[in-house]
Amino acid sequence: MGRPRRHDPERRERIVDAALRVVGRSGIAGLSHRTVAAEADVPLGSTTYHFASLDELLVAALRKTDEGLGRMLRESPALAARDADLGAALARLLGEWMGGERARVELEYELYLAALRRPALRPVAAEWTESVVAALSHRTDPATARALVALMDGLCLQVLLTGGSYDEEHARVMLTRVLVPGDGA
Question: What mean pLDDT comes out for the span 130-150?
């Protein structure tokens, strides 16, 4: 008779959390079933049982990171208020997100951009984009919502890639220009 199986209903979630820590510390290049198993303090077989491939694990990790900016935008009372200045509200929310833990923001973007080389991640990246477009479409048309998402991504990437700081007023002006073409705000 073998050893009794240990009941561990949170093991899958712990493995995903461990993968996020590994990627946050070592990048996607440092991710392996072995490094994740060690980080999660689980047997190596547990990681391959729950995630047959690293792409499956990355998909789960990317889905979990959607709890960041995407959730903030979808749940924002300021975006729901019809009388609120949408450009200012978006600029403020981006500032709150970018002003948080920089390593977390970098991790979210690293996983999001990994879809460039890992086709398995593309549907999840597209879902994130679509969920944010849907959230913004309650305040504007879908084409403008897509332009806003593209601009917000660009603003965030510029800050992350240059090491600069987020400029909320600049973001407000640029977002307002997308919302109100010709506005020289």
Answer: 92
